[in-house]
Structure formats: structure tokens, C-alpha cells
Write a structure and sequence with these properties.
Blueprint: E1 29-32, E2 40-46, E3 58-65, E4 71-79, E5 86-87, E6 89-95, E7 99-106, E8 109-110, E9 117-123, E10 131-136, E11 146-151, H1 152-169, E12 173-178, E13 195-199, H2 200-205, H3 208-219, E14 223-227
Length: 235
């Protein structure tokens, strides 16, 4: 079984999966504009295919330093809300000459949701002034809408079944997708969703620090669903 999850009040649910096709959605990848000939390439991506409208969001930043010098780049995540109810996040990434580094970070945390997005500002060698990547957020889905993040593997088998059940129960639910191997370990990145769903095989393959971060998110009130065809998959 999954040790310790019951002590954190996690909802580990055995789900009968239906073989149904899911809509394929690509994860958004933002490229930072850099100076021509600098040898620097910078990318910012969200771990979810559509960031939820509130809370923080798990991100990954990648720096390709094809120059002949080591450099340090500063990333500052902020949002375009004007309410002031937000907490920016920053990260410094140092990359040696001729090397590439990918690092996790979280977006700015905001209490307000609809019609806004996040800016990730970058400064450092090869970057023109203070350049930003923009990550648009999903709509708020209406009053009391709950956001479910479902792994791409699981959604490929159960997406249509989920939609039918939600419609039949008249639930206010908005579902987004993610690639399980890309998830970060910082629990704050899951603060914008209420439910997180994996297949049993994906959960087992997560890095220990990622599982630990998800357990912390569960301790803060998140709901974890691990889906399996039969109970033996949860052993």
C-alpha cells in the first residue's frame, strides 16, 4: 500500500478505468527573447497544460548556455492582477559554459483568479533588458468550481467517463492535464487545484521528493486520487 497517506487524510481511491480517448493538449512552452549571437536560450514551461486560475503553479525554467562563460540568470514570477493580493517568487539559476540546466520554481501566488496570467521576468547574460514570458491562466469555471489535475496517462483512459459522471452529477469541475514525470516537489505549486489524480504505476514512479511534496499538499487539504484496475496495483 501507499505508506503514510491515510495519516494525512488522503483520498486514495480505487477507480474502474474505462478505455476512452482523451483530447491531446500540448504543454505550453515559452521562449525568452535573447540577444542574437549570445549563445543563450531560455525556456519557461508550466507543469500543467492549463494553469488553474488561482493559487501558485509549478513551473520549470531551462537555460541553455552555449557561450564560453558561466552565467547567472534571475527569474521573478509575478502576476498581472492589480489587487495586490499576490506573493511573487524568485529563483537564481547558474549555468556553466556550454551547459544546460533545468530548475523547478513556482509562479506567483494570488487569491484572485479569472482573466489574468503570470509573468516570469528574466534578467542575466544575453537577455535584452528585463524580458518576460507570459503564462495565461485558465478561466475560473464559475462559482465554487473545483479544479482537478489528471495525469495524461490516466486521462487517456478515463477522460470521457469523467466528463459523463460530472455532467450526470451536475458537479462544477474543471479538469486540466499534466505529465507525471515533469511534476515538481514544491507543494505550493499545487495550491491552485483541489484534486490530483494519477494511475497507480505513475504514482510509484514519482521521485521520493515529489511524493513528499504531494503529501504536504494533502496535509494542507488537497485530495489525492490513485487509480488502479484492481487492488494489487496499489501494493
Amino acid at each position: 500500500m501507499l505508506p503514510g497517506l491515510h495519516r494525512l487524510h488522503a483520498a486514495v481511491v480505487l477507480v474502474c478505468l474505462f478505455l476512452a480517448a482523451a483530447p491531446a493538449q500540448a504543454k505550453e512552452l515559452n521562449t525568452i527573447q535573447t540577444e542574437p549571437g549570445s549563445g543563450i536560450e531560455i525556456e519557461v514551461s508550466c507543469d500543467f497544460d492549463r494553469p488553474p486560475p488561482s493559487g501558485a503553479v509549478p513551473l520549470h525554467v531551462t537555460v541553455h548556455n552555449n557561450s564560453n562563460r558561466e552565467g547567472t540568470w534571475r527569474f521573478v514570477a509575478d502576476d498581472d492582477a492589480y489587487s495586490g493580493y499576490k506573493l511573487p517568487c524568485s529563483l537564481n539559476v547558474t549555468v556553466g559554459a556550454g551547459q544546460t540546466r533545468t530548475a523547478p520554481m513556482v509562479s506567483a501566488f494570488s487569491l484572485y483568479g479569472s482573466y489574468r496570467g503570470d509573468n516570469v521576468y528574466v534578467t542575466g547574460p544575453g537577455v535584452r533588458m528585463r524580458t518576460a514570458a507570459y503564462l495565461g491562466r485558465a478561466g475560473n469555471g464559475g462559482e465554487n468550481c473545483q479544479f482537478l489535475a489528471m495525469s495524461r496517462e490516466l486521462s487517456a483512459r478515463s477522460w470521457e467517463s469523467l466528463q459523463k459522471n460530472v455532467q450526470a452529477r451536475k458537479c462544477n469541475l474543471n479538469a486540466i492535464q499534466f505529465d507525471a514525470p515533469d511534476l515538481a516537489a514544491d507543494w505550493r505549486g499545487y495550491s491552485g487545484i483541489e484534486w490530483l489524480a494519477f494511475s497507480a504505476s505513475e504514482w510509484k514512479q514519482l521521485a521520493p521528493d515529489v511524493r513528499s511534496g504531494i503529501r504536504q499538499w494533502v496535509a494542507q487539504g488537497g485530495h489525492l486520487v490513485v487509480a488502479a484496475r484492481d487492488a494489487t496495483e496499489l501494493d
